[in-house]
Structures are given as C-alpha cells and as structure tokens.
Amino acid sequence: MTCGTGGAASDGPAGTLAEALAAGTVVLDGGMSNQLEAAGHDLGDELWSARLLAERPEAVTEAHLAYLEAGADVLITATYQATFEGLARRGFGRERAGALMASGVALARDAVARARARGVARPLWVAASAGPYGAMLADGSEYRGRYGLSVAELERFHRPRLEALAAARPDVLALETVPDTDEAVALLRAVRGLGVPAWLSYTVDGPRTRAGQPLEEAFGAVADADEVIAAGVNCCAPEDVADAVAVAARVTGKPVVAYPNSGESWDATARSWTGRSTFTPALVHRWRASGARLIGGCCRVGPPVIGRIARSLGTG
Q1: Is the dihedral of CA 87, 93, 98, 99 positive or negative?
Q2: Number of neighbouring beta carbons within 10 Å of residue 314
Q3: Neighbour-count burial of 156, counting CB atoms closer than 10 A to its CB (0-12 exposed, 13-18 middle, 19+ buried)
Q4: Of 119, 104, 113, 99, nearest to 12 (Cα)?
Q5: Pairwise CA distance, residues 129 & 156, whole Å
Q6: By the 8 A CB rule, do 170 and 196 touch?
Q7: What is the DSSP track for 219-248?
Q8: Are 77 and 170 within 8 A, CB to CB?
Q9: At how many degrees (to 10) do helices 151-167 and 94-117 cross?
C-alpha cells in the first residue's frame, strides 16, 4: 500500500479509494454510536462506542453491517475514542489496548465479508478512525480545541495509536473531528511514513474551525500533505457544510469529504442531544456541487438516511 493512492480496496480488484474518489462519489456510513444505542447498548462511558470493542464486538460488526446494507461504501471503525491513555484508565495494558484498536479494523472487515455473503457486490473500504486529543479527555473539548499542548506534544500523543491502527492495514486512516489547525499539523506529521493514506476532516463552526481559525488557513495546512487523499469536515451542522466544502476544494485541490451531524446539538455536561434534525439527503447535492466526493453522516445520522443518500446520489 502506497501513501497517496488510497490503499487497496477491501475487495482487491476494485481499485483504491483514491481512484474511486477521482472517478465519482463514494458514500460513507453514519454514526456508530447512534446505531449501537438503537440496538439497546448503553454508551454512557468515557470510552463511548470503543468500549464495545472489548465487551460486545459482535454488536460493532452488526452496526457496520447495517450501514453496508443501507448503501454505504466506506465503514469507519469504532476506534474514535480508543487511545492508549484512555484504555489504560480502564485497566487495559498497552498490548491489549493495541489489540483492541486493531480489532476495530478486523470487525469492519468481518462486516464486509458478511455483506458479501448476503450479495453486496460493490467496492467497499474500511477507514480506521482516529479522533482528536479531546476525544480521549471525554469532556467535550474536541469541540473547542486549544488544549494547551504544543504541536510536538500532540504528535507524540497521536503517533502510537496511528501506528497501531496502520498495522491492522485499513484502506485509509480517518483523522476526524479535528477542532484546531495545530492538531491537524500534528496529525499530518504523525501519519508520515505509516504506509497508509488518510483523510483529514475538521469540525467547524461556520467559516472557522472550532478553535476559531479561518478555514482557508486550516485547509492550507493540509494542501501539501501527500499522505492525505481527501480533506473536509465532519461532526458539524449540515448548514455549515457547503461553504466549507467549497473552501476545502479550492485550497487543497483534493477530493473533499463531508459527513456532518444530524443538526442536533450535543450537551457535553448532560451527555445528551438537544434540538431537531436538519440533515436531509437533498442537501448532499449542494455538497457534491461544491466539491464533495466522499459523503455520509456523523452523529445521529443512521442507516435509513445513508440509504437515502446512496439512492439520491445514484450509488446505491
């Protein structure tokens, strides 16, 4: 696997994800946590959905499978909140923690195999999720950034778990929900030499990152990163996507990834969602017109919406 090519597809002959993005639109899955909660699993825990990698791995595979059957082409692993530091707080040694991260990729691969057995024949890929430093803190700080750490300190935090995820041979690393340009720079340094390509997506508030940097500056940090095959936004309001996609496309010259939340708001103190959904499949045509090529949903966007997106874009 060569950085910048998108990795080998889960099916081999279908080609790389980068090649698929160059050819057209690819559909991402939706929120892992809401699908697990809909199946009756309690995620009221600092490890969030990553806890089920150890306790209920079959539930993770079933959640992945629901998205594949709905029409998703790319699965994002349940490793967003899985870090050596966070798992250590729960009593997992380093070897066991690394194995759990790798298992996230294996469970997604298992879902692909099951989908194949049920007749799903289109190309499919697996993206290994790596959330921001704030996800490990589990206090909502991924929506603020500016943790008080240097770029070098953030790079040292991210590199070991990116190495663990890369060793499991996903098709791509999903550097997602990045709130801060400094953390983006650290992540870009941390993925160098891993042999697995990546996408990087910011969480944004209007025309700025959550930490307040203009998106032109934020995407400028990504433009020359050969390891990055797509850049864009996730875990943000649907209304913020189209303009951000246009900036990402213009500044980076790369395919753009877009997978916002439902439009509801997360209350980190109460650990609950408030408001109403504003995500509609009709919005995705604006995103695609603005440059998005990898399109799906994040928190509170489930298989029915992903299915409508796939049908609307003509991929499902």
Answers
A1: negative
A2: 8
A3: middle
A4: 113
A5: 17
A6: yes
A7: HHTTTT-TTEEEEEEESS-GGGHHHHHHHH
A8: yes
A9: 50
CA–CA gap between residue 259 and residue 238 (Å, rounded)? 8
Residue count (the chain): 316
Alpha-carbon span 245 to 247, nearest angstrom: 5
Query: Which is nearest to 176 in space by CA: 193, 191, 164?
Result: 191
Which amino acid is located at 144 in the chain?
R
Sign of the alpha-carbon dihedral angle for 48, 52, 55, 59: positive
Best CA proximity match to 159, nearest among 194, 201, 135, 195:
194
pLDDT per position in the chain (316 positions), as tens?
Answer: 233 344 444 444 459 999 999 999 999 999 987 877 776 656 566 665 667 888 889 999 999 999 999 999 999 999 998 999 988 988 899 999 999 999 999 999 999 999 999 999 999 999 999 999 998 888 888 889 999 999 999 999 999 999 999 999 999 999 999 999 999 999 999 999 999 999 999 999 999 999 999 999 999 999 999 999 999 999 999 999 999 999 999 999 999 999 999 988 767 677 677 888 898 878 999 999 999 999 999 998 999 999 999 999 987 6
Give the Å distances, CA to CA, from 102 to 11, 54, 146, 257: 19, 11, 29, 24
Give the integer Cα–Cα distance in Å for 144 and 82: 20
- In the chain, % helix, strand, coil (3-state, to 5) comes to 45, 15, 40
What tokens were used for 188?
């870009």
